[in-house]
């Protein structure tokens, strides 16, 4: 049975975050299964087209009138959301999202089933505007989840420890995030090494993230000197947006001078292609996820690294700790503890163990977008039958 699925979220491709990567993989996999998938999102960059077909997914981008912290105000969402909800069989919100309550209310008025995929809790930076924006987003999320027929999260571990989700556990459906890393050849790895002037003889400590406060970059910075005592040629290579992260200018100004003091022990690559990312994971001796709060609920990059055989050091956060705990490949360390982080990195570097092919293949199957889309499809169909 073909379904008309409407997915709604604030940011979508080409904006890059764990949430947008998740939504894009989910949408594309559902479209590949023969469903009619539309994504309603913001035209966060005015140069982006308002309408676009991306791998079978119809993207509708709404112009942004102005921004409120990391949120956006889109006047056309009223008429457009009402129209698209009417044309859809089921609506899937990705939270947190400022416009979610409006979409949820419209969905209920039009008697359509509603699924909320809850990615993480909200932690706003200081300041009156940010505080108000945080309150507004939290209220919107509560309204949305209250009206939802089901709530999806990556792990029960995170849901049970979330101050937000703990009251909605009866609606919870656990679906793992869609994660895929394309195979990479030795030739591509060699090309990557040359392009970015990587020194494979060094111990490479990888981090893949936006340069954002919740990612805990400063704790990795502080851990590096201790790591260098045991591995004096070690180098951190940071992949991801570190220059123009929305809402993180103050954090950038704080963290960059700290990083500059490390000299060539820290290297920024910026945003790279998916193929290049696969080569990067294959070169890393350890991948580090030093996130500090519940705005990180899983950390898809650690599974991406694992599917390339790379062990992980991650902080002991609900949800975030699950990939290492379930695979046994890496170390879990306390949050905001540079010494413990350094000890975890050193332990992994000393072990030099990588995942065997059997574990890698099991991870790839479990987290494949097709597997995830199949689980969403089953949930959607169940709700549509219940909705009558």
Number of helices: 14
What is the CATH topology of the largest domain?
Rossmann fold
What kind of sheet is the major sheet?
Answer: 8 strands, mixed
Alpha carbon gyration radius: 21 Å
How many β-strand stretches? 16
Strand order of the largest sheet: 3-4-2-1-7-8-9-10
Q: What is the CATH top level name of the largest domain?
A: Alpha Beta
**What low-confidence regions span 5 or more consecutive residues with pLDDT below 50?**
none
Structural class of the secondary elements? alpha/beta
Shape: globular
In the CATH hierarchy, the architecture of the largest domain is 3-Layer(aba) Sandwich
What is the helix fraction of residues, given as a range? 40-55%
Helix and strand pattern: EHEEEEEHEHEHEHEHEHEHEHEHEHEHHH
Can you walk through the features of this model?
The strands form three sheets. This protein has an eight-stranded mixed β-sheet with strand order 3-4-2-1-7-8-9-10, with helices on both faces. The protein has two domains: 4-178 and 368-387, 3-Layer(aba) Sandwich (Rossmann fold); 186-366, Rossmann fold (3-Layer(aba) Sandwich), CATH 3.40.50. α1 packs across α14 (369-387), α2 crosses α3 and α3 packs parallel to α4. With 388 residues, the protein is α/β, with parallel strands linked by helices. It has 14 helices and 16 strands. It starts with a strand and ends with a helix.
């Amino acid at each position: 049975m073909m379904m008309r699925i409407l997915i709604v979220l604030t940011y979508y491709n080409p904006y890059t975050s764990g949430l947008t990567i998740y939504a894009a993989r989910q949408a594309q996999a559902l479209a590949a299964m023969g469903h009619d998938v539309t994504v309603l999102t913001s035209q966060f960059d005015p140069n982006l087209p308002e309408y676009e077909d991306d791998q079978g997914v119809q993207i509708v981008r709404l112009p942004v009138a102005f921004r409120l912290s990391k949120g956006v105000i889109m006047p056309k969402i009223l008429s457009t959301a009402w129209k698209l909800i009417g044309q859809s069989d089921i609506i899937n919100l990705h939270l947190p999202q400022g416009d979610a309550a409006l979409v949820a209310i419209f969905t209920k008025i039009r008697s359509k089933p509603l699924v909320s995929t809850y990615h993480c809790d909200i932690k706003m930076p200081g300041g009156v505007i940010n505080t108000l924006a945080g309150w507004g987003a939290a209220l919107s999320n509560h309204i949305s989840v209250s009206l939802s027929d089901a709530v999806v999260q990556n792990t029960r571990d995170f849901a049970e420890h979330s101050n937000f989700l703990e009251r909605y556990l009866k609606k919870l459906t656990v679906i793992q995030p869609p994660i895929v890393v394309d195979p990479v050849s030795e030739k591509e790895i060699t090309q990557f090494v040359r392009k970015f002037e990587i020194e494979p003889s060094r111990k490479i400590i990888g981090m893949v993230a936006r340069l954002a406060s919740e990612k805990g970059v400063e704790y990795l910075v502080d851990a590096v000197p201790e790591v260098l005592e045991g591995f004096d040629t070690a180098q951190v290579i940071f992949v991801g947006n570190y220059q123009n992260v929305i809402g993180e200018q103050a954090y950038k100004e704080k963290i960059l001078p700290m990083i500059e003091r490390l000299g060539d022990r820290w290297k920024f690559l910026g945003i790279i292609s998916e193929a290049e990312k696969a080569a990067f994971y294959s070169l890393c001796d350890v991948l580090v996820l030093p996130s500090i709060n519940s705005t990180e609920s899983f950390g898809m990059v650690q599974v991406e690294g694992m599917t390339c055989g790379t062990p992980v050091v991650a902080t002991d956060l609900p949800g975030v700790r699950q990939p290492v705990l379930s695979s046994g490949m890496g170390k879990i360390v306390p949050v905001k503890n540079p010494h413990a982080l350094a000890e975890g990195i050193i332990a992994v570097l000393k072990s030099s163990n990588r995942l065997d092919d059997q574990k890698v293949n099991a991870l790839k199957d479990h987290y494949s977008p097709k597997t995830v889309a199949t689980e969403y499809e089953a949930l959607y169909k169940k709700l549509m039958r219940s909705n009558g």
